[in-house]
Amino acid sequence: MKKLLVLVGALYLQAAFVQAEVVVIGNPSIKATLSSAEVKNLFLGKRKALPDGTKIDVVELAKESPIREEFHSKFTKKTQAQLNSYWTRLVFTGKGKMPKEASDSKDLISMIASNPGLIGYIDSSEVTSDVVVLAK
Amino acid sequence: MNKIFKCSLIASCLLTQPVFSASADSRIDNLIEALDKVKISGYLNLTAGTAKNDKPFFDYDKKLSTTNETWGGVQIDFNASENLDFTLLTKFFAESRPYDDSFGVDLAYLTYKLSDQTKVRAGILRVPLYKDSDYKDTGFAQLWLRTPELVYANNKVQRHTGIEVLQDFYVGDGTIQVQAFYGQNEDPRAKASVNSNKTFIIDDIMGVHATYTIDEHLFKVGATTRTEPGELEDFIFVNNAGKQRLHVNGYYAGGRQTFYSLGYGYDNGEWKIDAETIFEITDGSRQDNGKYYASAGYRFGAMTPYIMYQYRETLDDRKRGVNFDVYTAPDGTKSRFNFQKSYTQDILSLGARYDISSNLAFKVQIDSYGDTSKGVNGNVQKQDNELYSVSLQAVF
C-alpha cells in the first residue's frame, strides 16, 4: 500500500513538473527573442515596438482565462485588479489604450498568424506551427 | 460592458427596421464597423464621510455626508482613423459645487499620432500638475481612498483649452515621457466674485513634465505656470452700503503662479510606495507653499493596508505683515488681504483597500488633521479634526 502511495505521489509530481508553462508568441515573421523586461514593457503599453523597430500591438486573453493570470504573475507581477488600476490611469489620461482581447488561445493564434504586428501569450502545450515562441 | 452596449444598440436598430432586407445587412455591417471604433469607459466613486468636529475639513463636518465626494465619469473614445482619435469625458457629481456643474464635459480632445513615440493633442485637456493629479477623481486607479488632498486640492486649474505634445524616449529598458503643453482656461470664480459679465481667462497655462519609468520605479519632474485673470480694476465692486471695495481676487490679478513638482513611485506588486515634493511660487506677497507627502502600502492578496503623511507650510512669511497687502478705497477705508502670516498643516492617514473584484474596490480611511496658523498681528490659532471615510470605487 505504501509503495502504491509513493508511486501515485511520484506520478502526480511528475505530471505537475512537466505541466506546460505560459509563453509569449508572435507571427513567424518575427525573428527575435524577448527579455522579461521587454515583455513587461510591451504588455504595460510602455513600448510599442520591438528592439529592431518592428511595430507591435499586444493581445490579451479574456479576463476569465487562468493563463492570463499566470502570464501576468510571471511577467508584469500584477493581479487583474492591479492591471485594471494601471490601465485606468492611462485610459483616463489619454496616454494609453487597453489591449485587444482574444476569446481563447485558438482565437489568439488565428489573430497572430494573420497579423505580423501582434503578439500574445498561450500555454506552451498549445503552440502550433502558425506562431513562434518569443519568450518563456 | 462595452460589448453589451454595442449589442444592445445593434438590437435596437434591428427592431426599428420594419422590413429586413438585403440592404439592411450592409447597414448592419457598417454599424458594427463604426461601433468597433468606439470604446466606452467609466468610473464611479461612492464615498461617505463624517468628521469628528465641525471645524472645516475637506467640506466635511460631524454630519455624515454621502454626496460630498460621490461622483463619476463616462469616457467615449472614437478611433476616427489609424492616427486620429477623439476623446470625450463627461463627469457628474452627486452634489453641485461652486463654479462647477453637477454634470458636464470635463475633457474633449483630439489626439493625432505622429509616430509610435509622438502624439499631439488639442482641445480641452487636463493640466498635469502633479504625479497623480491627471486622474485624481478616478479613485479605483489609486491605492488611497482619495489623493493627498492637502497637496493636490485648492487648485482651480484642472484643465486647459490648448495643445500638448507627448514624446516618448526609450532609454535602455526604461521610458522617458515628456509632456509639454500650452493653453488657457476660463475662471468662473473670478467672474462670480464680482458678479461681472466679463469673461475672465487664466492665461498662459503652460508647462513641461517628464516621467521616467523603469522596472518598478517611476520618477516625475514637472513645472507648470499660469497667469491669474483680469486686472485690479475688474475686481472693484460696490457693497450693500454703497461703498467701493476691492475683492480679494483683485489683489492677485495678473499675478503669476508656478508649480514645481518632484515625485517618485515604486510598485513591485506587493509594496507600493509614493512620495512627492511640490513648491507653489507666486508673485507678490500671496503665500508660497511647500507641500510634501509620502505613503507606503503592502498588498496581502486582495487587501492593501496603507499609511500616508502629508505636510504643507508657507515659505515666504517675511513678505506678510500688518502694513502689507493693504488697499485704500476712495472713502479712505483700508482693506488687508493677507491676515495669515504663516501656517502649517499636516494629515496622517491610515487606510486599507480591498479589491472585491478586478474592477470594484472598497476602501476605508481615517485622517487625523492638524493646523497651526499665525496671523499678521501675531495671534496663533490651532485646530485639529479627524475624518472617517468609506468608499466604493469602480471602473468599467
Short précis:
The complex is a heterodimer of chains A (136) and B (396). Chain A has 136 residues and is of the alpha/beta class. Chain A is 40% helix and 17% strand.
CATH topology of the largest domain in chain B: Porin
**Strand ordering within the main sheet of chain A:** 3-2-4-1-5
For the record, the CATH class of chain A is Alpha Beta
Number of individual domains of chain B: 2
Strand content of chain A: 15-25%
Low-confidence stretches of chain B: none
Distance between the termini of chain A: 40 Å
Characterization of this structure:
- The complex is a heterodimer of chains A (136) and B (396).
- Chain A is an alpha/beta fold and 136 residues long.
- Chain A has a single domain (18-135), classed as D-Maltodextrin-Binding Protein, domain 2, CATH 3.40.190.10.
- Chain A is 40% helix and 17% strand.
- Chain A contains five helices and five strands, in the order αβαβααβαββ.
- In chain A, strands 3-2-4-1-5 form a five-stranded mixed beta sheet, with helices on both faces.
- Chain A is globular and about 60 Å long.
- The mean pLDDT of chain A is 87.
- By secondary structure, chain B is mainly β.
- Chain B has two domains: 1-36; 37-395, Porin (Beta Barrel).
- Helix content of chain B is 11%, strand content 54%.
- Chain B is built from five helices and 20 strands.
- Chain B has helices at residues 2-15, 22-36, 149-152, 188-193, 248-252, and strands at 38-51, 71-79, 84-93, 103-115, 118-126, 159-171, 174-186, 201-214, 217-227, 236-238, 244-246, 256-267, 271-282, 289-298, 303-314, 326-328, 334-336, 340-357, 360-375, 380-395.
- In chain B, the strands form three sheets. In chain B, strands 1-2-3-4-5-6-7-8-9-12-13-14-15-18-19-20 form a 16-stranded antiparallel beta barrel. Chain B has a two-stranded antiparallel ribbon with strand order 10-11. In chain B, strands 16-17 form a two-stranded antiparallel sheet.
- In chain B, a hairpin with a 5-residue loop joins β10 (236-238) and β11.
- In chain B, α1 runs antiparallel to α2 (22-36).
- The radius of gyration of chain B is 24 Å and the shape is globular.
- The mean pLDDT of chain B is 88.
- At the A-B interface, α2 and α4 of A face β1, β2 and β4 of B.
